[in-house]
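[job 4471] stage=fold_predict status=RUNNING
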Amino acid sequence: MTTAASHALIRLVERNPSISAAEIASELVPPPQFEHASFESYRPDPDYPSQQAALDRLNEFAGAWRAAQRPGGFFSRKRPARIELPGVYLDGGFGVGKTHLLAALWHVAHGPKYFGTFIEYTALVGALGYAKAVELLRGARLVCIDEFELDDPGDTMLMTRFLGELMAGGTRVAATSNTPPNALGEGRFAASDFLREIHALSSNFETLRIDGLDYRRRDTEGHAEALADDTAVAHATEALAARGHAVSLDGFDDLIAHLATVHPSKYIKLIEGVEFIGLEGVHQLSNQNAALRLVAFIDRVYDAEVPILASGLPLDQVFDDEMMAGGYRKKYLRAMSRMIALTTGELPPHD
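[job 4471] inference complete, writing structure tokens
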């Protein structure tokens, strides 16, 4: 691996972070790019009326919290909007604004409230234990779950039981999940899959379908960018470091191997303080476990808005044909979309 020794470059493979359950819980807030997400800043695509319909319905869903903010609160003459069900599920493909709407709802809600991805909640349960995790979140007014995973029966059953206990105590739940798009941007919607997998809770959820095209593919050529070779990555990262940026530089194989030694709940700490990530020698993966760890890592990098400079195979081509035809296709498609954004500078706006 080429080494840029003149300036201090961070090696992610030398980091072995730890994270407590309390730290995981404190991270259960919208990612930085959604810090100011609001219903007003959501821009529905006029070609897809379901986007405006979902926006209107979520405004109604948030009505009770808004009513409490008005003079007189719940005792004012104007009755708050009625929430028919305690749960809402945003059903749509990539890049249609589901996460923006989810974050906007979180910002309107009164606390205590939590926002995280499916893997972050399962990590919390893993770190604390089931009973303590339930106790920590008990009493929350709202729990938002982004990218609910439907391909792991064990984790899905765990989360269904977990949410059931919270909802029994009055917690409202809002969730999304990404579904794989077919040709021409047409999404295969997964509401029936979601409701089937959480059958014990399905009657508590209202489904809002959101059609549309992936904005991340609207403004790019559809491929991740790759630098000419390892030397180009080394020079680029060294130049950024020389200008005072916190930059990491690792070999792709080294990083993939290191991810196997770090729990996915700690990936956010792995990149803490890093402004740019350099990767040398990217190539296609043949091990599905390694591929899934990369997906989890890319999710955290994307949330943290850290650009990637890479050489070798364009990052969106690292998953082989067998993986793309398998049960984790939706995860790989999401990661590919995000890796395009991370390598082309097309980070904002976000889903």
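[job 4471] summary: The chain has two domains: 12-17+219-344, 46-212.
[job 4471] exit 0
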